[in-house]
Design brief:
The complex is a heterotrimer of chains A (162), B (222) and C (316). Chain A is an alpha/beta fold and 162 residues long. Chain A is built from 5 helices and 6 strands; from the N terminus they run E-E-H-E-H-E-H-E-H-E-H. Chain A is globular, with a radius of gyration of 16 Å. In chain C, strand 3, helix 4 and strand 4 form a beta-alpha-beta unit. Classes of the chains: A alpha/beta (162), B alpha/beta (222), C alpha/beta (316). Chains in contact: A-B, B-C.
Chain lengths: 162, 222, 316
């Protein structure tokens, strides 16, 4: 990863055009992935050599239900352009209800973002089975693209929390 | 517990955006139980206000904290030093907490982050409902424990009005008829005789109508 | 008590005690400060009804008050029944209004809980309900029979002596409790009852059976309520109102009628004649709100004209 000096992190792609690189905003994405499903799928994607954008930083949690609104908002405060939570398929959560809680909380954060003038699309909930590395990669690609379209987090580079 | 609900964020924002340093203060009492103003909610609200400030271009600092309760002087003393660093406290306590903070921290602007909705209980996770209007003159031994002042939309004392239908109150199909509830319960307990007695008009002077209420327990005084 | 067994100077009481089948009708005061409509309706209805009810901010919508409306009816030569709800006034205001109404010649009151404030056009107003309808009946009764204000204080001069009415809805829930609630109102001192609108006569007859078994028909004058319907749509809407029971066959009849208003009148007349047959029913209360002009026609077709002439008895 290379800091282009304008606050955007770009991936160094061998042979890429410099001007093109500088013009392209590279989103910083944080993904909370549950140990039992989503993180396993990420591992699988890796061993299957499936490409997904390096923009996505994974944070492993025991269950997507561990994630609460305060964490999602904090990620945005710290400069993430987009945050998603990836849990087990509905009905398959290792802890029964965890992914349902996560879904509701992501929904609550979306509503809150709308109230404060931020795009609700910057946070999302996904369900990825452990065996589906391809789905994991697809989610990472789709979300990165979505955030690329939305543009950078206005809090980027600023000290939001005292 | 006292049940309350957070005000919409834009409404809160309008109250605090002019301040320089705002302490978003949660309360570990009732509002933690009904998930309106506990430590977690304070953290989330402070985050949200910061993020809002980024977009809106505010110059305001928001910090979150929480104390055990906002209705006991000892706990307020505990944060006195911290409060001195702020020009505004956004209280996430119930109305009592807001009042009490304002009385104690005279040079700090105190604003409410919640709308207090009464004394209630948890029906299920995420749902709380009013059960007591603090009328100061409890008569629940006469109605099988179900409060006609609170559960009847008209606070009638002598049985249901003509608008009771299918166990629902005339004001909405979502609202149970309090008197149907009382009737069913007394029937189950074989005490329908209680419903035949004429209840006299209530002494409303024991509610707030009679003035600000104070409770004193002499043997508890130091 | 007066020489003829009447407790009050009420003409309605006189009609009932003399054994006539009574007719009362309702007039809804306007959302204005004009008495013209009331006076017009009163002039038309006074010949065909023994008393005229004036509603009290019905459905919690602000209207000319029932006290003033009652006085307008008096001035037009009619006999008013002033309706009093518990929703908007506390016991001080209510007793005050009762003294005022009586001083102006009103002799009948109907004591009600009142429709909830949320139905009306000022839903943000403070709800009162200092009293409920049972307590209100007792209050008015004690003013008459014991010459006392609600606080127990004696009314030294000129206590108001109203003929006291209460309402009952035989079709509300809990059904098994309705007759018992009626008994409570009688015990509290109600002299007459006007019921909620009856469309299902069989069901009402079953209610009256329970009432008779309890001996209540001997203790209170029961007037059955009728709401004449002018269209099938109106009847369908009525069917959705809490506390109203409307048999489907009546709705079908209205739908199939060539002249719905005429059919509505016919239905009202039939209901009246069937209700007259039920022992214990001592009169009918016609609630033709917003269609007051139809009342004379209904009373005429029901064969209830002419109304009895009663002289105001002098108090004993």
């Amino acid at each position: 990863m290379v800091d282009d000096g304008a606050g955007a992190l770009t991936a160094e792609r061998p042979g890429g055009d410099v001007a093109e690189r500088e013009a392209r905003f590279e989103p910083k994405i944080v993904a909370f992935c549950c140990y039992y499903c989503a993180y396993s799928a990420a591992d699988l994607a890796g061993s299957m050599r499936l490409q997904y954008p390096p923009n996505v930083r994974l944070i492993e949690v025991p269950c997507s239900g561990r994630v609460d609104p305060a964490l999602l908002l904090r990620a945005l405060e710290e400069g993430a352009d987009g945050v998603y939570v990836a849990g087990c398929m509905e009905g398959d959560c290792h802890f029964q209800q965890g992914n349902f809680r996560a879904k509701r909380r992501v929904g609550a954060v979306k509503r809150l973002l709308a109230q404060i003038g931020w795009e609700p699309e910057r946070v999302e909930m996904y369900n990825v089975p452990a065996s589906d590395g391809a789905r994991f990669a697809q989610v990472a690609r789709e979300f990165t693209e979505r955030i690329r379209q939305l543009g950078p987090n206005p809090a980027r580079g600023r000290k939001v929390r005292s | 517990m006292i049940i309350a609900e957070q005000k919409p964020i834009p409404e809160i924002a309008a109250q605090v955006r002019q301040c320089r340093r705002v302490l978003v203060l949660g309360c570990g009492g009732c509002v933690t139980v009904c998930q309106a103003g506990g430590e977690k909610e304070a953290e989330i609200l402070a985050s949200a206000l910061r993020l809002m400030g980024v977009r809106e271009g505010w110059d305001t600092q928001f910090d979150a904290a929480a104390i055990t309760r906002q209705c006991d002087p000892e706990y307020l003393e505990g944060i006195a030093r911290k409060v001195a660093e702020y020009d505004c406290i956004l209280s996430l306590g119930c109305g009592v907490g807001v009042n009490f903070l304002a009385e104690r921290f005279r040079r700090t602007w105190v604003v409410p982050g919640l709308n207090t909705k009464g004394a209630g209980a948890t029906l299920e996770a995420g749902v709380w409902e009013e059960r007591c209007l603090a009328c100061g003159d409890c008569i629940l031994h006469l109605t099988g424990g179900i409060c006609p002042i609170t559960r009847c939309s008209k606070s009638l004392l002598n049985g249901p009005c003509g608008g009771s239908q299918g166990g629902k109150c005339e004001i909405s199909p979502e609202v149970a008829c309090g008197w149907q509830l009382i009737y069913d319960r007394l029937k189950e307990l074989d005490r329908l005789d209680l419903l035949l007695e004429i209840r006299e008009p209530k002494d409303w002077s024991r509610t707030h109508d009679g003035g600000l209420r104070r409770v004193v327990k002499e043997e508890a005084r130091l | 008590m007066t020489a003829n067994g009447c407790k009050t100077e009420s003409r309605l009481e006189r009609v009932l005690r003399e054994g006539h089948f009574a007719v009362t009708a309702e007039v809804g005061p306007p959302k204005s400060a004009s008495s013209k409509g009331i006076t017009r309706h009163a002039a038309a209805i006074k010949e065909v009804a023994d008393a005229i009810n004036l509603t009290d901010n019905q459905t919690a919508i602000v209207r000319l008050c029932s006290l003033a409306a009652a006085v307008h009816v008096l001035q037009a030569g009619g006999e008013p029944v002033m309706q009093v709800t518990c929703r908007d006034r506390n016991r001080i205001a209510i007793q005050s209004d009762l003294l005022g109404a009586y001083s102006l010649g009103v002799r009948n009151v109907l004591c009600l809980s009142g429709d909830h404030i949320s139905f009306g056009n000022h839903p943000q107003a403070r709800t009162v309900y200092d009293l409920d309808s049972v307590q209100l009946v007792k209050l008015v009764h004690d003013m008459r029979e014991h010459r006392r204000f609600q606080n127990g204080e004696e009314i030294k001069v000129a206590p108001p002596r109203f003929f006291i009415g209460a309402a009952e809805n035989p079709f509300a829930d809990p059904v098994e409790f309705r007759a018992l609630r009626l008994a409570k109102k009688v015990k509290a001192g109600a002299d007459f009852i006007q019921t909620q609108a009856v469309f299902d006569v069989d069901r009402f007859a079953r209610f009256m059976q329970v009432v008779r078994d309890m001996g209540l028909d001997q203790q209170v004058f029961i007037l059955a309520g009728i709401v004449p319907t002018r269209s099938a749509k109106a009847l369908e809407r009525t069917a959705t109102v809490p506390g109203m029971v409307v048999p489907q066959e009546l709705i079908d009849r209205m739908k199939g009628a060539a002249d719905q208003e005429k059919e509505g009148v016919a239905i009202a007349v039939e209901l009246i004649s069937r209700l007259r047959e039920i022992p214990g029913v001592r009169g009918v209360h016609i609630m033709a709100i917003a269609w007051e002009e139809i009342v004379p026609e209904i009373v005429k077709q029901a064969g209830l004209l002419p109304r009895p002439r009663v002289e105001l008895a002098t108090p004993a």
